[in-house]
Amino acid sequence: MLRIAKIHHITRLLNAPVIRTSLVNIANDGYDSRLGCKIAFINRNYCSSRKGDGEKVGDESIKSHPQSKPCESQDPVKLKECQPVSIHPCKPPPPGFPTKIPSVKQCSTPNMMSEMPEPTCPFDEEDGKRRASYRKLFLLGLLFTAITLGTVWNLGMFDYHEENIRNKKEKPKSDNKRKQRQKRAIIKDPPTSKEIPSNVPYLLIGGGTASFAAFRAIKSSDPTAKVLVVTNESFFPYMRPPLSKEIWFNDDPEAVKKLIFKQWNGSERSLFYEPDDFYTKCQELMENPNGGVAVARGWQVIEVDVIAKKAILEDGYAIHYDKCLLATGATPRLSPIFEVAVADEKIAEKVKLFRNIYDFEECMEAYNQSKTIAIVGGGFLGSELACAMARRDKKKTKTIYQLFREGGNMGKILPEYLSYWTTEKVKAEGVTVMPKTEVIGVKNDGKGLELELSNNKKLHVDFVLVAIGVEPNTELAEKSDLEVDPELGGYLVNTELQARSDLYIAGDAACFYDARLGRRRVEHHDHAVVTGRLAGENMTGGRKPYLHQSMFWSDLGPDVGFEAIGVVDSSLPTVAVFAKATGRDHPQAVVTQEKEGLRSNTEEIPQECDKYASEEKRTELEEARKQSSEPNKAEGEDFGKGVIFYLRNDIVVGIVLWNVFNRMSVARQVLKDQRKYEDLNEVAKLFNIHEDDMSEAAASE
Ligand SMILES: Cc1cc2nc3c(=O)[nH]c(=O)nc-3n(C[C@H](O)[C@H](O)[C@H](O)COP(=O)(O)OP(=O)(O)OC[C@H]3O[C@@H](n4cnc5c(N)ncnc54)[C@H](O)[C@@H]3O)c2cc1C
């Protein structure tokens, strides 16, 4: 493996401009283009590339010169524009090389090179001596380069250790990312693009949650609308959250195969938003008087022509639209260390990413065949999957490692004490958690992978699941002239989610302006639902701004979960209030009726918040709060349930409801009202987190 990395680095080094120039020079028989005879050198390459002269071209930059068009015309009149080019080389030409380059006779366009001044470096003896000294210089340079490379190699600086790679700030290559993720064949339906309508009123690119919410909104304002969804996945639209949670808890293998999961309350549900027969066939969409929603599956859009209002598929087929939504979501990324390591196919087979149904199926298969698994990443996805895998292993025959840079699970979101507490919970599920640990080397050890860790330990695992974050899918931006936010990523949109006329963006791929919290990009289910819905409404004539605060949630199994809203970042100061959890304070207690919603109770009207609780109620709650545990509990104590407020400039900008459910509307109102630090005593009461304590106490009396 080290060899591969070394070769990789050497290839890159050889491509470095200085070394490349030197090598080109050496390849050109010691000739140095930087020493005054550049034009002759260029001409030599250029002219010898012309049709018919039989010599190969060596210089890429010349080939790509915009003026260098192929010489095809036989028209003698045009020859006037193409003067023969001759060169005056600065050294005797090698044997067999003509001192005069053959005339460029077959140009249909003027040869720009012929208009360049002729070189003024006549060959003489002085020049010969000078060239001999240049050659010496070159050989010295070459020797120096070789020695430097050798030293660097010996020092191990080409080895792909995390630190080195990170320091170089390499951008992950999306090519590898994609290769890595397309192990299972994509099924195209319809199989040929001709069967996809070429002209539709509504085109939705991407078949995820945002698109699903958009077509529901379009159909509800325009019931006979004809909506075409194009997705590069083989599946009809489905929800992703259960893939890292509930589905791992289903013991019925047949149900798992059919992608059926049990909600925490035990009721069964399909991962797919709608059954297959809900959708109209692509071939029938335009003829159907009642309209419908058709999904072209397995088809990739590679460009949107925003002026001509058409999307181009991978085979060049064009789909014209009246209104278009781009909801292309995001793709998980590898850390640089794995990015390099997966160049080795044997390693690549054992490094997994997790985003879609295929990823789930692959991971489940690998999980069933493995004894040791490492999950890299301490965020939602890594923590959820670690807990789910450990729980699933009822006989405790597997070792599940979870390793990450931070001090505790979800350390980027939760305040330190709560993050540490969560780590204890994750450990209690049977996960071997390794905080403050990074992978710094990856080797194929024959049976699996050997991970070299930053704590000087080595870990043998059967496979690794990398869950360190995602990148928005904005590949269409360049060809489609769309703007991407340089810092946050995602297509830039206005508050109506428009990127250009009749082109909308929603979900993970949108970078939107939040009037209260500034420019943001959000990678959560509820945000995809809300932005998809809003885009759909605006595509059918609405002109609504995006003012809604979406929420997100994470469940570490049926017992511990949280919901959050706004800017939830552990680097912000926080204030929290906690209480003892009761039998009702866990994710299992939360079920929603909304089809696309899962836990997405986005349109709820604040109830508990009714400006606000009565004086009597407040006193009662205040009393209860005093008697029970106060925010700053000692480490190790039970943070059963609570509310955590995140402050920026003393204003509440984010809230986590820790094992507190059905209070999101209150939290939303608090953010909307821009409540301040000094209000928090009052604000905390609105969440009634002690209510259940009191009712339980009353019941037991
Ligand atoms: C395992 C998992 C668990 C999660 N759990 C939670 C959770 O508990 N809570 C929460 O709030 N959020 C959760 N999320 C995040 C949430 O699922 C996403 O934020 C949401 O799916 C985003 O929806 P979207 O429509 O923007 O993108 P996606 O759902 O990613 O859909 C985008 C679709 O577009 C397709 N596509 C991309 N480019 C093209 C193209 N050029 N042509 C055609 N098709 C294209 C993609 O393949 C994909 O099918 C989870 C995500 C995952 C993966």
What does this molecule look like?
The protein contains 20 helices and 28 strands. The strands form 7 sheets. Strands 1, 2, 5, 6, 7, 8, 20 and 21 form an 8-stranded mixed β-sheet that branches. Strands 10-17-11-12-13 form a 5-stranded parallel β-sheet. β14 and β15 form a beta hairpin. The protein starts with a helix and ends with a helix. The N terminus is likely disordered. Bound molecules: flavin-adenine dinucleotide. Its cofactor is FAD. One of its GO terms (molecular function) is protein dimerization activity.
Bound molecules: flavin-adenine dinucleotide
Average pLDDT across residues?
76
Instruction: Quickly count the helices.
Output: 20
Terminus-to-terminus distance:
68 Å
Derived from helix and strand composition plus strand pairing, the structural class reads alpha/beta
Tell me the strand percentage band. 15-25%
Envelope shape: globular
Keywords: Apoptosis, FAD, Flavoprotein, Membrane, Mitochondrion, NAD, Oxidoreductase, Transit peptide, Transmembrane, Transmembrane helix
GO biological process, one term: mitochondrial respiratory chain complex assembly
Domain Mitochondrial apoptosis-inducing factor C-terminal: 535-673
Subcellular location: Mitochondrion
